[in-house]
Design a protein that fits this description.
With about 130 residues, the protein is of the alpha+beta class. It is built from 2 helices and 9 strands. The strands form 3 sheets. It has a 4-stranded antiparallel beta sheet. A 3-stranded antiparallel beta sheet has the order 5-7-8, with no helix packed on it. Strands 1-6 form a two-stranded antiparallel ribbon. Strand 7 and strand 8 form a beta hairpin.
Length: about 130
């Protein structure tokens, strides 16, 4: 089995185990956009435990990305995200996003996104200042 096929099988198994669904296609309560374009991704913040990242996409839209495990590499000074999508540059489900963090010249560390939640404007405003992307 090639590495690509193995990664695809593992990704589908993780998504299945985490209960990833296609519920992201319907509009959320409060009118928050369900999908975002990676080209519109402007900022990010990460919780202290590294399990949740908040991103801003397209100006006002804020999304909560939950990770299968802690994404501690994203907390390092000088880290940058390596974002790959599967298909188009639109992200609607965790399966659409291959997120890795690169620190310096080392290998990029994968951060497996298990859930994507668009926040309503009220939820985004209620985030603590340190977590607003």
């Amino acid at each position: 089995m090639t590495n690509f096929k193995r990664a695809a099988v593992v990704g589908l198994a993780v998504a299945s185990a985490l209960g990833v669904s296609s519920a992201y296609a319907a509009p959320a309560a409060g009118g928050a956009a369900q999908c975002f374009n990676t080209r519109d991704w402007i900022g990010r913040t990460l919780t202290d435990d590294g399990k949740i990242m908040y991103i801003r996409a397209g100006g006002r839209s804020v999304y909560q990305l939950e990770f299968a495990g802690a994404c501690r590499a994203a907390q390092d000074i000088g880290s940058h995200l390596v974002i790959r999508t599967h298909g188009s540059s639109m992200v609607c489900t965790p399966l659409d996003l291959d997120l890795r963090v690169s620190v310096g010249r080392g290998m990029a560390v994968p951060c497996i996104v298990s859930k994507i939640t668009p926040l309503s404007p009220e939820e985004a405003s209620a985030l603590p200042k340190a977590l607003k992307p």
